[in-house]
Amino acid sequence: MNDKKITIALSKGRIFKDTLPLFKHADIEPVEHPEKTRKLIIETNQADVRFLIVRATDVPTYVQYGAADMGVSGKDVIIEHGGDGYYEPLDLKIANCRLMVASPIDEIDEPKKLRIATKYVNSAKKYFAEKGQQVEIIKLYGSMELAPLINLSDRIVDLVETGNTLKANGLKPTEHIRNISSRLIINRASMKMKHQKIKEIMNALEEAVTNKSQQK
Ligand code: PRT
Ligand code: MG
């Protein structure tokens, strides 16, 4: 990691889109848009700040190992990653959704031991363990909505925003596990070594989040 530079790991898509105005408040603006370039390192208007564009699920790993000083990651991803090696000082209140259990709309009777298909294995295990319900968890990496349709599982655990994806696949949300939003995460060593600059960025982001919630 470059001594002076601040490297910020972000994923493309909704997190980048929602994070951009917050970083703008911190006077950090990318010189290129990740959807319009193939570059994975994007410089900003500040010579000592750059963005790394990585897969959403990889953001905590880059920050954990110090390849990035900070990053923005969904709480869903942080829970699955485990949270080692970084602080989570700020809820950015963006990319909001809910982690839910969903069942087929036309289910007649509940099977005895539920099979749950999900990419969120840790969250699902914890949820059902706390309820004292024995389930079989089937790990998938995407398109969970398909699993109950073709009898791979009885339920899924997935993120829900509008509910349209569930509905389109004959499913309905049945249990609310937790609310999800994106968080600022900061490498533990960077927090010490680059404290002043990181604190400056953190304060500006916090102010942007507060301003935004007051506008609502
Ligand atoms: O897409 P890719 O495989 O690269 O990675 P990713 O899916 O992890 O990234 P991305 O950008 O899709 O999501 C990044 C983060 O956004 C997630 O980690 C969440 O914290 C957050 N987020 C917020 C969401 C949603 N809302 C969301 N609705 N992530 C995914 N979804 C999906 C959901 O999984 C389901 O397939 O959208 C579908 C449901 O949407 P509705 O509106 O139909 O209910
Ligand atoms: Mg996605």
Write a structural description.
The chain is α/β, with parallel strands linked by helices and 216 residues long. The chain has 2 domains: 6-95 and 181-215, D-Maltodextrin-Binding Protein, domain 2; 97-179, D-Maltodextrin-Binding Protein, domain 2 (3-Layer(aba) Sandwich). Helix content is 33%, strand content 30%. The protein has 8 helices and 11 strands. The strands form 2 sheets. It has a 6-stranded mixed beta sheet with strand order 2-3-1-4-11-5. A 5-stranded mixed beta sheet has the order 8-7-9-6-10. Helix 1 crosses helix 8. It is elongated, with a radius of gyration of 19 Å. The protein starts with 5 loop residues before the first strand and ends with a helix. The mean pLDDT is 95. Residues 11, 13-15, 55-57, 74, 76-77, 95, 97, 158-165, 180, 182 line the site of phosphoribosyl ATP.
Tell me the name of the CATH homologous superfamily of the largest domain. Answer: Periplasmic binding protein-like II
Q: What is the CATH topology classification name of the largest domain?
A: D-Maltodextrin-Binding Protein, domain 2
What is the N-to-C succession of helices and strands? EHEEHEHEEEHEHEHEEHH
Number of domains: 2
CATH class of the largest domain: Alpha Beta
The termini sit apart by 39 Å
Q: Radius of gyration, Cα only, in angstroms?
A: 19 Å
Strand content: 25-35%
**CATH architecture field of the largest domain:** 3-Layer(aba) Sandwich
Binned, the helix content reads 25-40%
**Which ranges are low-confidence, i.e. pLDDT below 50, for 5 or more consecutive residues?**
none
Indicate the mean pLDDT: 95
> What kind of sheet is the major sheet?
6 strands, mixed
Which structural category fits the helices and strands? alpha/beta
Number of strands: 11
